[in-house]
Amino acid sequence: MKTAIIIPARYGSTRFPGKPLAILGGKPVLAHVVDIAKQVTKKINGVTYHVATDDTRIKTFCDDHSIPVILTSENYETGTDRVMGAVKTLPTPPDFIINLQGDAPFTPADFVIDIINAYQSNPSTDIVTPVVQLSWGELDALRESKKTTPFSGTTATLDKNNRALWFSKNIIPAIRKEDRKNPLSPVYRHIGLYGYARESLEKYIATPQSHYEQLEGLEQLRALENGMTIQAVVVDYAGRPAMTGID
């Protein structure tokens, strides 16, 4: 199976202009993300990676550091659109595509590997994405943060086979009776990392924005509203700090 890790990197972010080239721990944020991709390529055969950007400053940085880079159009509305634009330029179409955000330096490489393995086990799924099951303390902290930043943090409900039923900026499911004997709550928090079957990504990009996608501001709802399947992979940070900027 051929897998392409595409790292969309925008310079002109409204919240943090130039974030991919901002220095973190002595090197640019983007360099940390590229290191994540490199770790994956060392552990799984058939994986390649490219940065996808519309900015010449980011392209110059990549060229100077021998990082594969694709200069895309400036007219893409989302990072997912940019990923598809980059994929179309690859000489060999990949079977599976990972969207690894260029401003997410704390993404564990293991999570990317888990996504690839999950797709290999179930290639009939359209999209694969990780979730983490919250402890009761983490759920309480999320509830508290929602009081001041209600649109931070996305939760997900899953079926018995861990296929996603729904995602929301509200905390779902509502829990009528909280039994805290189990250290883990029944709430899953979504991590904004996606893997797509190539045909599914093509279908997704060709589909107009959906009703609930626009209401909640969650791109993945477009897939669910149009009958696409999203396989969730339950991951564990195992003592590592949780990712910042998760969806």
Describe this entry's structure for a reader.
The strands form 2 sheets. Strands 1, 4, 5, 6, 7, 8, 9, 10, 11 and 12 form a 10-stranded mixed beta sheet that branches. The chain is globular and about 55 Å long. With 247 residues, it is an alpha/beta fold. The longest helix is centred in the first third of the chain and has 15 residues, at 29-43. It has helices at residues 29-43, 56-64, 79-87, 109-121, 136-146, 198-206, 211-216, 220-225; strands at residues 3-8, 23-24, 27-28, 47-53, 69-71, 96-99, 127-135, 155-158, 164-168, 184-190, 194-197, 230-234. It has 8 helices and 12 strands. Residues 240-247 have low confidence and may be disordered. Strand 2 and strand 3 (27-28) form a beta hairpin. Helix content is 32%, strand content 23%.
Distance between the termini: 28 Å
Q: What's the Cα radius of gyration? A: 18 Å
- Mind summarizing the main beta sheet? 10 strands, mixed
Strand content range: 15-25%
* Total count of helical runs of at least 4 residues: 8
- The helix content is 25-40%
What spatial form do the alpha-carbon principal axes imply? globular
- The string of secondary-structure elements, in order, is EEEHEHEHEHEHEEEEHHHE
Kindly state the mean pLDDT as a whole number? Answer: 92
Question: Count of DSSP E strands?
Answer: 12
Alpha-beta classification: alpha/beta
Taking pLDDT < 50 over at least 5 consecutive residues as the criterion, the unreliable ranges are: 240-247
Q: Which helices and strands appear, and what pairs or packs with what?
A:
Elements: E1 3-8, E2 23-24, E3 27-28, H1 29-43, E4 47-53, H2 56-64, E5 69-71, H3 79-87, E6 96-99, H4 109-121, E7 127-135, H5 136-146, E8 155-158, E9 164-168, E10 184-190, E11 194-197, H6 198-206, H7 211-216, H8 220-225, E12 230-234
Parallel strand pairs: 1-4, 1-6, 4-5, 7-12
Antiparallel strand pairs: 2-3, 6-11, 7-10, 7-11, 8-9, 8-10
